[in-house]
Every structure is written in structure tokens, then in C-alpha cells.
Amino acid sequence: MRPGVILWDVAYIREIIQDGHPTLRKVAKKVDLRELEDPLFQQLIDDMFETMYAAPGIGLAAPQINVGKRLFVVDLSEADDDGGRGPFVVVNPKFTVTEGEIDSIEGCLSVKGMIGDLKRFERVVCSGFDRSGKKIELIGTGLFGRCLQHEMDHLDGILYIDKAQNIRPAETDEEKAALAEVEAEGAALERNAEAVSASA
Ligand code: ZN
Question: Is 93 contained in some domain?
């Protein structure tokens, strides 16, 4: 299920930086596609997946591990959503379609333990490049669509707390359950954690 590892079959868990770190507030730089040929860039992608799975989460953007480049990883293959999607890495992502509006409850691996309510587009079409430089297009609805929007915001220096209302700690079991259902990055996706460890 995990994407193929290019180098020595080793990926490293990197530190996820937290709100207050300046990198989270910078607009990330476009990736020169020639960088994809660099083994260190492929290692970065592997490390992003590894870090996301270890958190555990369902999405992670490069700025969250202090790398100011425009790429993110998502994996909803274990999520109890509309069939699950991924794993995907998207380099230089761009929304070509944004439409509709839905309510979202989100958390973030860089804003630990908190959730908040916000509006997202109901459907997005995201184009970009995969790890080999091939053009890809992802159609995002439901949790997957919200996750794409959350990760895209990270590339523009935006955190969900900038847009959310009623930001609160996920405290009660009910709130944690709600978080597990809908949060964008899954700091407390307990169901996912079980699934991931069961398959590890
Ligand atoms: Zn986030």
C-alpha cells in the first residue's frame, strides 16, 4: 500500500513543526520538476509519507516538516469515507475547479489537539505532478476534497485556525469521534491508527 521507496528502503520520521514556527506562515516555493530526479527529493517524499503515517494523519504538506516547497501527501485509503483515496503525492498542486460549499470540522498536525468549524468548497479538481513528474488530476469531494484544500492552504502559509470558528480542544469522546470522522489531518484518527498498525 505504501508507495515504492527509491533509495535504500529507508524512510525517516521528521519533526512536524507547530503553529508559531515561521515556515508555516510562508508561501512555499514552486518545485522545479528537475528536482524530482534528485534522490534526496525522492527521499523527502518517502519521509513525508512515513511522517504522516506515524503521526498518524491522512495528509501532510512539506512546510509542516519545515520544507518550504509546494508538495503534499495524502492517503485516505484507510479512511471510512467514500471508498478511500490514495496514497498520492502532489507536486505543484493547483485547483482548476472549486465549487459549492460544505461545513468542515478540521484538526491539524501542526495545531495539536484542537478542532474548529469552517467552510470548504464541496468539490475541487486538483492538478499537479506525481513523483515521476507525470501530470495528474485529482477530483476531490467529501473528506478527500476537504483534505486537499487543507493541504493546499499549508502551501500558502495558511492554517485552518485562520478560517475556523469555535476553535476548541477535542476533549469528550463525542468530540474525538467527530474529529475521527472529519478532521483534515487526523491527529486522533484512532480507527486509522488501528488499521495502519494492523497492516504494518
Ligand atoms: Zn494541517
Answer: yes
